[in-house]
Each structure stands twice: as C-alpha cells, then as structure tokens.
C-alpha cells in the first residue's frame, strides 16, 4: 500500500509540472478544488483503453488536446486508486460528467469531468453484460447483451427499467426522443430497434444489413454500419420515416464532425499469412458529406505516416471543439498508437494510448 501511495505522489508531481504552464494563465481553473488528486489540464481528452478480456486491465488515459501534450499513466487508477475493470466497452460525456460501460466486469460508472468516480450501477443479471451508452435528458440508455436496452437515471445511476429488443444489441443513438439500437444477433439478425424514450415500453423494428453494429446520428439522419453477409462492412442511411435502408459504401470505422462522416475500411487478406503470424491489411479512406450528399472514396489525410496505410484500426474520434481527427490502432499485444490529424487532415503527431485496444476519446474544455 505504501508503494502504491508513493506511485500516486510521483504521478501527481509529474502531472502538475507538465500541465502548469498550460493552465497557469487561468486562475479560475483549479481541478484540485473539484476532487482531483492530480492537476489535470483544462483542455483535456480521455481515451478509453479496452484492455484484454479477463485481464482486468481496461483503463482511461488522458492528454491535453490544445497543448498536444500526452501523459503516460492510467488516469482512472491515479484518481480512484483502483483498476477500471475488465474490458472497457464505451465512453460518453456531457458538459459535466463521463459515463463508462465496462463489459467484462458488467457495470457502468459515472465520473466527473476529471475522471473522479461519482457512482456506479450493476444492472440485473438477466439483462446480460453492458455494451454501449447514449444519454438523453436525465437518463442513460444502455444496450445489454441478453437482448435488452436498459434505462438508468443519470443523476444517481439508479436502474429504472428495460425493454426487450433483439439478440446481442450493440451501438445506440437518440433522435427526436426515440432510442435506436442495432441488433447484431452475432450475424443472425438484421434489424434496428426503435424505442420511445419517455414511454419506454416496447420496441419496433426496421430492417438493415445482416449483423448491424454501428450507428451515427448526423444532422438528424441515422446512418448504420455493420459486418454484412461477407464481413465487407456495408454502411448506409436508414430512412426513419419509411423504414428503407440504402447502402452507400463500405467502412469498418468512422467518426463525424461538421456534418461530414470520416471513414476507414480495413480490408484484411486472411488467405495470406505473413511470417510474423499476422495478415496483410489495407486501409481505404472515404468521406460522406451529409450537407451535400457527396461521397468521396479518397484519402482525406495529408502526410500520413506510411504504417497507417496497413495498421489495424480499432477506433476513430473527432474533437467536437476544433474538428481534429484521432485514429486509434492496436495489435492487442502492445499499447495502442493514436494518430492525430488537424481538421484539414494534416498530420500532427502520433502517441501511445498507454493501454491496449484504444476504443474512443471524449473531449472537454
């Protein structure tokens, strides 16, 4: 225990030294007054690292996105004195709080905007393990692998109720008071479930591709991405009025900013094993402008490091404050590498996520 306390003291001293210059000109910003054990930058971004299944090594690291400065330690551990748990699945944020779903440990935690834990909830076991989150009004809606969407009060993290959907639901979004989630069925389903967030009593369904996975709400339009019949990652738009799904392209990872969807389609040749045991991958880049409906199959990145053309992409996030893009890669053996590009696609830097399987980033200022 003494050794752990000493580690926290050293980390705190390093963090104060590293971030003092970036924050010293704002006398009103003092995270130590908000329960933080370390001095966290005002323009901060939090990276959820998935970790390895059953290894209890999920974590949250952080960087100063304005100063472009990284800090190589587990912020969740430093702030809370414990591990996040087994398999970090999803992270979302509003202006004040962060919410994290931890799949293997099967719980949801609420943190303040500095990463200090406020409350946790474990849902009824019959709902299945937690997956993905969306916040609407004062509620968190979470997909659960037993085939349910659960409703949790955001202010106190108390479980309210659940609605049955399809098997193995995945991503979830909100539009006009309706909750949408994909029903993957591990390849046996092809539907999106829709639930009225206020009534929260039953689900209706719309058909999309086989094994749907991801969802985006961009300018009030719902876009769906999935594995498809042949794991070719089709994506397209779901017309929520008519129920019609129209495929537009192929992508395995995406993010959005300013009405534009930025995508990468990672194509792996599973029939050509390399000497190191890996399989060759080629990343294809594309964009879709929801303001003009223009689809471009072209690389939107400039001065891209050569290795990113064939790296295994495990996530993409856009900074909502300036449009910078962050592409996360991982071999699930070593720490993830994150590639930072500005809003115009210019390469800025690459850095370690200080954890395995970086999935998603949330931003504050």
The description of the largest β-sheet is:
4 strands, antiparallel
- State the strand order across the main sheet: 3-2-1-28
Strand content: over 45%
N-end to C-end Cα span: 34 Å
Total beta strands: 28
Based on CA inertia axes, which overall geometry fits? globular
Which ranges are low-confidence, i.e. pLDDT below 50, for 5 or more consecutive residues?
Answer: 1-26
- Integer average pLDDT: 92
Structural class, please? mainly beta
Helix content: under 10%
Radius of gyration: 20 Å
SSE ordering: HEEEHEEEEEEEEEEEEEEEEEEEEEEEEE
The number of helical segments is 2
Oligomeric nature of the chains: single chain
Summarize the structure.
The protein has 365 residues and is mainly beta. It has helices at 2-23, 75-80; strands spanning 44-49, 59-64, 69-71, 88-93, 97-102, 107-112, 117-121, 130-136, 139-144, 148-153, 159-164, 169-175, 178-183, 191-196, 203-207, 212-218, 221-226, 234-238, 245-250, 253-257, 260-268, 281-289, 294-296, 313-318, 325-329, 337-341, 347-352, 358-363. It contains two helices and 28 strands.
What does this structure look like?
The chain has helices at 2-23, 75-80; strands at residues 44-49, 59-64, 69-71, 88-93, 97-102, 107-112, 117-121, 130-136, 139-144, 148-153, 159-164, 169-175, 178-183, 191-196, 203-207, 212-218, 221-226, 234-238, 245-250, 253-257, 260-268, 281-289, 294-296, 313-318, 325-329, 337-341, 347-352, 358-363. With 365 residues, the protein is mainly beta. The strands form seven sheets. The protein has a four-stranded antiparallel sheet with strand order 3-2-1-28. 43% of the residues are buried. Mean pLDDT is 92; it is low at 1-26.
């Amino acid at each position: 225990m003494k050794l752990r306390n000493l580690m926290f003291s050293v980390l705190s001293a390093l963090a104060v030294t590293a971030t003092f210059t970036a924050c010293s000109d704002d006398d009103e910003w003092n995270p130590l007054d908000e329960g933080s054990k370390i001095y966290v930058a005002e323009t901060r971004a939090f990276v959820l690292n998935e970790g390895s299944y059953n290894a209890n090594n999920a974590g949250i690291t952080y960087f100063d996105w304005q100063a472009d400065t990284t800090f190589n330690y587990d912020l969740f551990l430093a702030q809370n004195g414990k591990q996040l748990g087994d398999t970090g699945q999803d992270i979302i944020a509003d202006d004040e709080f962060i919410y994290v779903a931890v799949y293997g440990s099967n719980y949801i935690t609420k943190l303040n905007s500095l990463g200090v834990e406020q409350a946790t909830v474990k849902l009824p076991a019959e709902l299945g393990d937690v997956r993905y989150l969306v916040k609407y009004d004062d509620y968190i809606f979470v997909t659960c692998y037993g085939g349910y969407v659960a409703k949790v009060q955001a202010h106190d993290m108390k479980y309210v109720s659940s609605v049955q959907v399809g098997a193995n639901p995945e991503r979830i979004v909100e539009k006009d008071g309706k909750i949408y989630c994909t029903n993957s069925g591990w390849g046996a389903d092809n539907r999106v479930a829709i639930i009225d967030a206020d009534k929260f009593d039953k689900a209706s369904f719309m058909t999309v591709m086989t094994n749907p996975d991801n969802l985006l709400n961009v300018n009030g339009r719902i876009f769906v991405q999935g594995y498809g019949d042949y794991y070719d990652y089709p994506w397209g738009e779901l017309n929520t009025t008519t129920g019609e799904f129209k495929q537009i392209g192929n992508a395995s990872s995406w993010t959005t900013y300013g009405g534009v969807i930025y995508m990468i389609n990672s194509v792996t040749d599973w029939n050509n094993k390399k000497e190191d045991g890996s399989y060759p991958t080629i990343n294809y880049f594309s964009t879709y402008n929801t303001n003009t409906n223009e689809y471009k199959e072209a690389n939107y990145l400039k001065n891209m490091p050569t290795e990113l053309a064939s790296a295994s992409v495990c996530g993409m996030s856009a900074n909502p404050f300036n449009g910078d893009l962050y592409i996360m890669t991982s071999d699930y053996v070593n720490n993830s590498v994150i590639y930072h590009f500005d809003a115009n696609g210019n390469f800025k830097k690459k850095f370690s996520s200080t954890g395995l399987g970086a999935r998603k980033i949330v931003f504050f200022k």
